[in-house]
Amino acid sequence: MKKIRIGTGAGYSGDRIEPAVELAQKGDIQYLVFECLAERTIAIAQQAKLRDPQLGYDPLLAARMRAVLPACRQNNVRIITNMGAANPEAAARHVARIAAELGLPALRIAVIGGDDVRARILADDLRLDESGQGARAMENSIVSANAYLGATPLVEALAQGAEVVICGRVADPSLFLAPMIHEFGWAADDWPRLGQGIVIGHLMECAGQVTGGYFADPGVKDVADLARLGFPIAEVDESGTAIITKVAGSGGAVTIATCSEQLLYEIHDPSRYLTPDVTADFTKVRLRQVGPDRVEVSGGHGAPRPETLKVSVGYLDGFHGEGQISYGGPGAVARGRLALDIVAERLKLVGVPTEEVRFDLIGVDSLYGATLPAGEPAEVRVRVAARTRTQSDAVLVANEVETLYTNGPAGGGGATKAVKEIVAMDSTLIPRHLVETTVTLLEG
Amino acid sequence: MMKLRDIAHARTGDKGNTSNISVIAYRPEDYALLQREITPERVFQHFAGIIAGPVERYEMPNVCALNFVLHGALGGGVTRSLALDAHGKTLGSALLALEI
């Protein structure tokens, strides 16, 4: 039976690079997928593109491509990535330049377009899910709106011989489904098979999270050698059954436990996981340990795909101002609380306009409020964070923590402050016929 | 009495203002106990004051897991929450403190 091996080279924008190189060199893979777009990454990239039309793609694109392209060319590994973010065309041109520098002639690079639907959601004034407002009412603050594309344009690019496929917003598991459809010729309405492909893609899309990352709990769930964590390989046969594994000798572990955790990661109703390609059903998935660091995955199912595509919408939502300072030794908690009270009163006295303020004692109640029992810690960190309309108000909030040095409780140390613009996300649905995708081939 | 952590592991994910926590039995024979003890009401109660709710539960006997979906869990959404852990990634570890 025909089989392919797909590796994951990154599970988020800032991910480690060496595991991808390891896969390209020693993974015996035919495809290497880099998934680098979190919910708001594309909105931030869009802001970069507005400042410089040559930017707006993943900041680590060049470093990653320099690291893996030589081995990928040598071993016939094709790359699929959403590192194009808000500007796949500029990303592709940059990859072509890097290939030329590396002495890799005639690299075939495909650019996927069509996910940017900002103009369309404004023209049709689509209603946003969380704010409940029409898009037009937020026109000035909306920086990006990208529809989640499916595997179809990627499959087209692979059929045209692309060695590197660069896209922006494509549903994460669809990046992995595309090479399966291309290699095995699965029909566009073979819902059970596509559902199983999505299960595999879902297990793979967070890279190290299925091979022992985000898992270790010393004494309970130990994982060896996380500093050299190996990224996953899916060995998929044409029936859709897959084995999740990793390069021999790399760190981490692939077990039923690591795969079970990842199977449900960011899933709501497991019987109806909506993707642009299929409504996937995870409830019959079977996991079987078939060897060391080898888990067989089968039983994924599916039903027809939704008629709409999800659009994630990035909008500017004011500023975040934050200050922190530490207290230690006997009485640290009481001094930390006094510090928080002082800042709360100062914000009122000075009259800093805030939309929301949060007061935390890190080490006591910053993660779970007062829901878990806590003893007296040896040190605490005061944290005040606020959302404000203007940057200058955010700075005022952060400063009120810093001034505790000389005006607050005894022994405050290590004050820090941070101010950033908030890019918030909302979503909407768009009828799929309104989204026109493009595939453009570029030869480097 | 024992803690949930003695028989199960968990992973937390986020989407918008919603968090999901999978609770997975180490041994298949403990799945029935999870099903009986870890109700959506108990999970909501455990996080009272830090999530708005409601909490939904999905059963996944095929992998001996329960999947809890916690609505209104992330301070208005990952991207605008003021929380230190805006993704709520640490919620699952706290759930393992539940007594059974």
Report mean pLDDT of chain B, rounded to a whole number.
95
Elements of chain A, N to C (H/E): EHEHHEHEHEHEHHEEHEEEEEEHEEHHEE
**Radius of gyration based on Cα positions of chain B:** 13 Å
Please bin the fraction of helical residues of chain B: 10-25%
Task: Profile the largest sheet of chain A.
Answer: 10 strands, mixed
Oligomeric state: heterodimer
Please count the beta strands of chain A (DSSP E, at least 2 residues each): 18
Order of neighbouring strands in the sheet with most strands of chain B: 1-2-4-3
Neighbour order of strands in the largest sheet of chain A: 11-12-8-7-1-2-3-6-4-18
How many domains of chain B? The number is 1
How many individual domains of chain A? 2
Q: Which residues of chain A sit in consecutive blocks of at least 5 with pLDDT less than 50?
A: none
Distance between the termini of chain A: 35 Å
What does it look like?
Chain A contains twelve helices and 18 strands. Chain A has 444 residues and is an alpha+beta fold. Chain A has two domains: 3-114 and 149-306, no CATH class; 316-424, Alpha-Beta Plaits, CATH 3.30.70. In chain A, β1, α1 (18-26) and β2 form a beta-alpha-beta unit. In chain A, α3 crosses α4 (88-101). The radius of gyration of chain A is 24 Å and the shape is globular. The two termini of chain A are 35 Å apart. The model of chain A has no long low-confidence stretch (mean pLDDT 97). Chain B is α+β, with helices and mostly antiparallel strands. Chain B has a single domain, classed as 2-Layer Sandwich (Alpha-Beta Plaits). Chain B is built from three helices and four strands. The mean pLDDT of chain B is 95. At the A-B interface, α9, β15, β16 and β17 of A face β1, β2, β3 and β4 of B.
